[in-house]
Amino acid sequence: MNTMLQQISGESPESDPVPIGFAQNFRRGLFKRLDQRRLFRTSAFRLALIYAMVFSTLSAATLGFIYWSTRAQIESQVDARLRLETDYLINLYQSGAMPELLEAIQRRNQIDTYGRFYYLANNEMAEKSQEKSTDALPLKLKSVRTHTTRNMGDVADLPPGSPRAFNPVRVAETQLSDGLKLTIGHEISDEQALLDHTFTLVVGATGITLLFSLIGGLWIGTTVLRRIDSVNRTAAEIMSGDLSQRLRVTARDDEFDEIATKLNQMLNRIEDLMKSMQQVTNNVAHDLRSPLTRLRNRLEVTLLEERDPDVYRTVMDEAIGDADSLIHTFNAMLSIARLEAGIDSAQWKETRIGDLAGELAELYEAVAEEEGQVTFQNEINSNPLFYCNRHLIGQALTNLLDNAIKYTPKNGLVCLGVEGNSEAFTITVTDNGPGIPEVERERVFERFVRLENERNSPGNGLGLSLVKAVTRLHAAEMTIGDTNPGNATNPGLRISINFTRKATAEKHGKTVAAKPDAKLVAKSVTA
Fold it and tell me: Which of 205, 252, 220, 280 lies closest to 461 in space, CA to CA?
């Protein structure tokens, strides 16, 4: 290993041994380089880099426009001053006052207050005009003036080695008649220094903008990568079997926290389903073993010896009854599974909840009269119009009313009520039976869960599970409490289901306008 590290570091095996910490530093540096490569591949860093380049380009263009505008404005102001001087001297020239022109030029050169110089000279055209012996000075300009920027040494007579030789000068040249050329220069060293300083600021500001943009991109990419690594670690732990792990949600409440919250809700649901499936498996093994064992033993005992045909018929009828009970249990499980999967959404329509509750009230009033031991009372005070699955709502209410009548003692009271309007309403089923202990109220809605004192009574423990599935399908809220909180013997049971049109529409992606309610006043019935 040391030999390999020596080869990597450029050392020979015969050189000094590699320190122990070198391997660790080498691996740490290698992993760091790999992590940096991973950072550069992140979408956040690439997007930040694109924004940095675009923003830097726009900033450079804006600052460059300011620089060139400033330069043009300075040149324009200098040219305007040169133009005034040129116009004054040209007026002297046009008036024929050549001595006054030369005197003005000489006086201005001596003063040199504003860093200007003046020069009037003949060019080649002047020599040609002298050969023609022209005495008069025409009063008309020969050509248009020009403005250029040059070095001082190119346009002025300066001593050798003068430090002003390379100073910038703004020059206005006017070609006069008869080969004369008027040159006026204005030294713009101060203006050029200002422009150079402005250019330095433009380049520096652009560089600083790009640098901080890149730093921001690295910071954003690192932050995103850190959050993604946290998600990856949590996902790996969940994949390893620890379903209790959840994504970390910070106090920043950003888009990552929103996604983490939704994923945590999904994980909670998955964990609940996994626990429910495990519990269902245990309960199925416990609750279905008895009828299957009873069915097998009954058939086995019947086959031990010859029996009369009537005995065989009786045994077969009992076996069919046990099979029907098993089929009923599996049908209930299938119904709950379909509800949780949302398969029955095609059967949804607008339903008058008061009418549905009234039909069930009439049915259970008859059941109460037949038994003669329970008083049934309805308090259906409204008839809201609600978008729902009528069959499932009716089945849920049927299960609640069956349980209420089943567990209400002699001379007890069962009540079905509806309150509210089409936007929000509540269905309530109450009784004055033994009720459910507070510690068991969450567990009774799980599949195959039955209280110990009711395990030997008829039933499969799926009725309240179906009610909960229907409630969840309609995005409703179910509350459970005592009818008579102070009664220790028979506190009763009160189950309320609160429906809202808005929550149901959001869950199923529908917007249904509420229609006016039709009040339904139901007559109270006493046995």
Answer: 280
Whether residue 483 contacts residue 492, with contact meaning beta carbons closer than 8 Å, is answered with yes
Q: In what order do the strands lie in the sheet with 477-481?
A: 374-380, 412-420, 424-431, 493-500, 477-481
Name residue 119's beta-bridge partners. 183
Mean pLDDT on 167-184: 77
For 107, the token pair is 């006086």
- Residue 16's pLDDT is 47
Residue 520 contacts residue 383 (beta carbons within 8 Å):
yes
| Residue 466 confidence class, pLDDT cut points 50, 70, 90 | confident
CA–CA distance, 24 with 18 (Å, rounded to integer): 11
- Return the SS3 of 138: coil
The token pair that represents 210 in the structure block: 């790009």
Rounded CA-CA distance 386/361 in Å is 19
Separation CA 482–CA 431 (nearest Å): 9
Which tens digits make up the pLDDT trace of 215-260?
Answer: 877 787 778 778 888 888 888 888 888 878 888 888 888 888 888 8
Q: Is 413:432 a contact under the CB 8 Å cutoff?
A: yes
